[in-house]
Known about the structure:
Pfam families: PilM_2. It comes from Candidatus Kerfeldbacteria bacterium RIFCSPHIGHO2_12_FULL_48_17. Helix content is 27%, strand content 33%. By secondary structure, the protein is an alpha/beta fold. A hairpin with a 2-residue loop joins strand 4 and strand 5. It is globular and about 55 Å long.
Amino acid sequence: MMFRFQPKFFSIQLTLNSMRLIVLRSGRIRHFAQFTSDTPFLKDGVWQKQTAQDFLKEKLATIAGLHGNTVALSLPEDKTFTKVLTLNKKIDLGNEKDILTEIEQYIPVPIQDVYADWQMVSSGIDRTAIAFTASEKKFVDDLLSIFSQLDLQVLALEPESHSLVRALLPEHARSEAVCLLEIEETHSTCVVQEGGVIYFSRRVPNGSWQNLCRSVRESCQFFTSHLSPAQRPVDHILLCGIRTPTDGDSLQQIAKLLKYPVFLAQPWGKRKPPASLKNDVTAYAFSVALGLSLRT
């Protein structure tokens, strides 16, 4: 699932019915775009390939200066399985069969039906922690075929949670336990990371602010009591996404409901949003696409 990039590529996040695109060159935003489709790209969790192909072909043709045919793509968070396994034994990371056997116990589909990637978190004489991500092969293959039909080469696939961490948390800020909350039109993605490792990822329907905040608060508490190696509390929560409230009163109210310190994320960092997005909540919608574009 993880591949090296060629020098030039652009990043695309496909959501239920929209596309967000970023072209980053030498640390500068060269192009960005957001388009919305009247017809969903996903129906009952299945890619509507012809709909997506026709839409992408039409919209990509309108972006001047979009050089190259290589692209990095995000995988929707609700179509990936992300977890840290803590095993009461030492395990060899080179023993793929043993690792896949362990992963299979934590996913709802047979291991032969998924693509999986993993990394060591910690290792001791009788204890091993492994972070893994998996996604169903059919879902991934259908996504790849959409771009193959457009003569675009996919050089990397990455869960949205990984892109969010890269976009919103510089490396020096990843040692703390931080919750990232991406608030979209119909749902929100809650990600909790510590030390650059994603321990928790959950997509929840928005509903009322009270219900959303309760769900996020419970997720943070679950991380502390069951997942954090040192049972560390979440230090603070960063907000991003198209429905991010930006006024002070709303942020105070959300912080009161969450019972955690809450801050607006800075996905654009030192790059600053393009002038057309400045002071516009749309700027917060590009967090995943930006994180993808920052892959090296």
